[in-house]
């Protein structure tokens, strides 16, 4: 039996407010752990300086995924909030509309089916 097909994912992050801090990305295939990814042992995370606007994931199994991205401007490794409202930038794959709270996995879901895929994430800021 052959090897499972794999794909490369390139994530571009647009509309960052500044180059301060880090861009933190979480890629998950688990709807129950989106967008936080904290209990997902299979989630892939990346943390890059905020002046880097492209993040690449190589050799991913093909399938359905969703991305959550934060602009951790102060570098404290979390999304700062005030009364539950994000004080730092955030974004998701497929750039779904944002209401109260994060979108569901299905709204941000995309499928890796070929050998390469690109996702463009537009950062949003409330404050």
Folded structure, characterized:
- It is a single chain.
- With 127 residues, this protein is mainly β.
- It has a single domain (6-122), classed as Immunoglobulin-like (Sandwich).
- The protein contains one helix and ten strands.
- Strands 2, 3, 5, 8 and 9 form a five-stranded antiparallel β-sheet that branches.
- Strand 6 (81-82) and strand 7 (85-86) form a beta hairpin.
- It is globular.
- The mean pLDDT is 95.
User: What is the CATH class designation?
Assistant: Mainly Beta
Structural class: mainly beta
What does the largest sheet look like?
Answer: 5 strands, antiparallel
Order of helices and strands: EEEEEEEEHEE
Number of strands: 10
The fraction of residues assigned to DSSP E strands is over 45%
**Uncertain runs with pLDDT below 50, 5 residues or more?**
none
Whole-angstrom Rg: 14 Å
**How many structural units, i.e. domains?**
1
Name the overall outline. globular
- Give the overall pLDDT as a whole number: 95
Query: Between the first and last Cα atoms, what is the distance in angstroms?
Result: 53 Å
CATH architecture descriptor: Sandwich
Helical amount among residues, as a percent range?
A: under 10%
- CATH fold name, please? Immunoglobulin-like
Q: Please report the number of helical segments.
A: 1
Task: Give a quick summary of the entry.
This protein has 127 residues and is mainly beta. It has one helix spanning 105-108, and strands at residues 6-14, 22-28, 44-49, 54-61, 63-72, 81-82, 85-86, 89-92, 110-112, 116-122.
Give the topology.
Elements: E1 6-14, E2 22-28, E3 44-49, E4 54-61, E5 63-72, E6 81-82, E7 85-86, E8 89-92, H1 105-108, E9 110-112, E10 116-122
């Amino acid at each position: 039996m052959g090897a499972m097909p794999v794909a490369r994912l390139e994530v571009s992050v647009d509309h960052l407010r500044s180059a301060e801090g880090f861009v933190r990305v979480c890629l998950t295939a688990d709807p129950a752990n989106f967008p936080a990814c904290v209990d997902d042992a299979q989630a892939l995370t990346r943390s890059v300086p905020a002046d880097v606007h492209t993040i690449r994931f190589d050799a991913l199994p093909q399938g359905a995924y969703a991305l959550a991205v934060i602009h951790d401007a102060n570098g404290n490794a979390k999304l700062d909030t005030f009364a539950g409202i994000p004080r730092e930038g955030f974004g998701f794959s497929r750039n779904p509309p944002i209401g109260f709270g994060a979108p569901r996995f299905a709204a941000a879901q995309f499928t890796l089916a070929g050998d390469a895929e690109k996702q463009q994430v537009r950062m949003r800021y409330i404050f």
